[in-house]
TrEMBL record:
Pfam families: NPH3 (PF03000). Residues 476-535, 550-595 are annotated as: Disordered. Residues 199-474 form the NPH3 domain. PROSITE patterns: NPH3. GO terms for biological process: protein ubiquitination. Residues 486-506, 513-535, 550-568 have a biased composition (Basic and acidic residues). The gene is LOC106769381. This is BTB/POZ domain-containing protein At5g47800 isoform X2. Pathway: Protein modification; protein ubiquitination.
Amino acid sequence: MKFMKLGTKADTFYTEQATRTLISEIAADLVIQINDITYLLHKFPLLPKCGLLQRLCYDSSDSESVSLELHDIPGGEEAFELCAKFCYGIAINISAHNFVSALCAAKFLRMNDSIEKGNFVGKLESFFNSCILEGWKDSIATLQTTATLPEWSENLGIVRKCIDSIIEKILTPPPQVKWSYTYTRPGYTKKQHHSVPKDWWTEDVSDLDIDLFRCIIMAIRSTYVLPPQLIGEALHVYACRWLPGITKLKSSGSSVSQTQESKDKNRKILETIVSMIPADRGSVSVGFLFRLLSISIHLGVSSVTKTELIRRASLQFEEATVSDLLYPSTSSSDQNYYDTELVLAVLETFLKLWKRMSPGAVDSSYFLRSIRNVGKLIDSYLQVVARDDNMQVSKFVSLAETVPSIAREDHDDLYQAINIYLKMHPEMSKADKKRLCGILDCQRLSPEVRGHAVKNELLPLRTVVQLLYFEQEKGSKATSSHKLPKPHEILLGAKDRAATTRDSQSKHSLGPGKEEFNGEEIRERDQQKTKRSDGKLALALNLEKKMVIRGDIEETQSEKARVVRDESSSSGKVNMDPKKMIRRARSKSEHGVKK
């Protein structure tokens, strides 16, 4: 940081109560009041250099003491004192931190070269042009101090000249950067990296006020020299510098420290950053967009900003990772730890955009891969949020059902998420379990996962029966000896025994001369006996889940169809039509009676 030293005399100013004066044998004849400070000074060193004081003291005699009030001087008493010390020849240091206030005060007092050659304004402007504007950090620091005197700085051209100098240096090719800059990325050391990084300027610029930062970014974008990704990196650095962290939002949401003033400031910063994001896809990461979206919900940004963030995040949703989605809920009414509503909103927007594609485009490998990546992402996300004790079944199911069928190549990841949810919520009701497992398609599970599922005691009985039924269909074509036990294999031996018992009972009940029984009565008797034996058999078998025959007609017919199909399996062919199987069982029963 460069500075300019003016004057050689020692500083003899001192304070006595609310009065500032300097050690002198000459009595003070100029009293100047600035805010709450009173200065006791002398006319002879100040009037020759200050055109304003000359005009104000024009009507007074040389021996007369004059009192003036300069409450509106820019920079206040500190800036005035710099000007007064310059007039007295007292040593002062001018740097980027006090240049703006000193120049504004000198302009206010009319300390121009027209009043006296080599005056204060001329020296300050020379320092500004030759030192401050030539330096990188000096230009940043000077521009930053203009926020205290925005109108004066704008009118004097300080803001414009500083911005032009900063932009010129930012657009300089990295190999030509010779000035000092701040770069504190993790793992980066200048000793190990001799080349200048492309984003060398982003950290220093992030120290500026949001309005000044916006002026620089928009000016850089208008040149079309830097790539959109570099602009996005600057926005990311600025957001990390000024916006509060998500965990801080969660903990201080109801604290006094999070005042309305700071909330309004952060809201303005976030909305300004969103408005500056380049339209190019990938200019910022999807994780950064989710972070802004999560903060925006807490800060209560405009609906336009929130909608834009959701749209931008949905465009890059397939690039996201699970960690990009794991933001805590900032809503006071939401009991969940994770903000699933945020993820659901982005997912729904993504699906709307995806469905707008032409039918030909949707069938292409790129769009299929895109929707598959999103489906896998959501299933992995569900496995994480399933561990939340307060996660409601309705929200879990809603998020899982939003994913279209084409987005899942199989249901293995979804099963894992459901299994985790069942383990973490052991007190679930039967209705909730049924609703949760209803989103699972048993036919789309791999053999390994299906083998685990049929032994899973947490699953409801209906799901296990479906798994066994589909395993039977696949098992009829399999040649491996390591197969799951099928329902017809389990029931076959018991069915043969039941059939033998029925034959012996039938012969015993017929006796001599009873062979001409009516065929209809025989069929009714066989059906009643079959129902009784099937009911006893199903109760006797445990199948690990106590497969109890339901009282409704559909499940009873399903059990009959399954038993008859097992009998027909001895012929090497499985008939999957329940009605045909029942008719075949009846014909076999009549044939046995006639014999």
